[in-house]
Amino acid sequence: MVVVLNGVLADECPTSVRALLASHPGYRDAAAQLLAAAARVVPPQGLLYVGQRELAAVVPHDKNVSIIGSDDATSCIIVVVRHSGSGAVALSHLDGSGTAEAAAAMVARVQQLAVGYPEGRLELQLVGGFTDPHRYSDELFANIMLSFHRLSVEIDLLLACSCELNTALGGGAPAPLVTGAGVDVRSGELFPATFPDKGPEVPLRGARMITGGPHSAQVLDIYDNAVGMLRIGPFNYDPLRGVDLWLEQSDDFILQHLSTTPAVEPPHFVHNIRVTLRFIQQHPFPAVTVFPDNRPHYYRRDDHSGCWTPVRF
């Protein structure tokens, strides 16, 4: 029993937003406050973008990162763990794969970065997901809450802007109100955000979700705090049968068959999928052509441009 709700240790972990609000209606106000804030368009300078099935952790004094964030979370949920004393913060973009392992890894990374700060508590914030027709977000919310509840540390749930609290009904189909969030690493402020630049090697990073394979379900840590560099891979994925056929299909066919929530995907969804499919077509065996030496691809923050640039060893 380690999830703390409004300062009270929970006897039972709420596995739905409805159950959470039944006993702690104040979470509605916290979500409303986030929803009322204008979304920021975050430039690439000083940004550490975390993609789907990725996580990263940083500290306030990291000179390379000022904002950590993620977006395009329709049925997915963005998870933020922060230590209030040190300001160390971890962020992940979860879609249902590797949830328990990601929760444990986020807490472990933040605790590691908070060593030396005796004061402070672990805080949890959830953003994204909505009342989608298949209830993917509801199931994911339950798994995230249970994953943190089962850990051996106390963690305060501050925000749950998810599922029914993040759903626009209006006159049409349900849609998520907020699909992206950023965290100011120095102040700890969380805000709605979009990120036009999602960092380097986006097709490679997205290929795991489409192909499957031994690394496809893992939530990968993409930041090396010891050296202050973005780290991609190494990982492998299964060759995608019929990739040529996929690329011949219409945009609508790709949208309907490769999205869990086709009615609410952003305009760039199909374009990004096509770019990723072409990458898979060109690199069916990444262990051979992308990571031939089985080493990560590292990126360092360029002092002049503020963007990530590849490091050659």
UniProtKB/TrEMBL annotation:
<protein>
    <recommendedName>
        <fullName>Protein N-terminal asparagine amidohydrolase</fullName>
    </recommendedName>
</protein>
<dbReference type="GO" id="GO:0005634">
    <property type="term" value="C:nucleus"/>
</dbReference>
<dbReference type="InterPro" id="IPR026750">
    <property type="entry name" value="NTAN1"/>
</dbReference>
<dbReference type="GO" id="GO:0008418">
    <property type="term" value="F:protein-N-terminal asparagine amidohydrolase activity"/>
</dbReference>
<dbReference type="GO" id="GO:0006511">
    <property type="term" value="P:ubiquitin-dependent protein catabolic process"/>
</dbReference>
<dbReference type="Pfam" id="PF14736">
    <property type="entry name" value="N_Asn_amidohyd"/>
</dbReference>
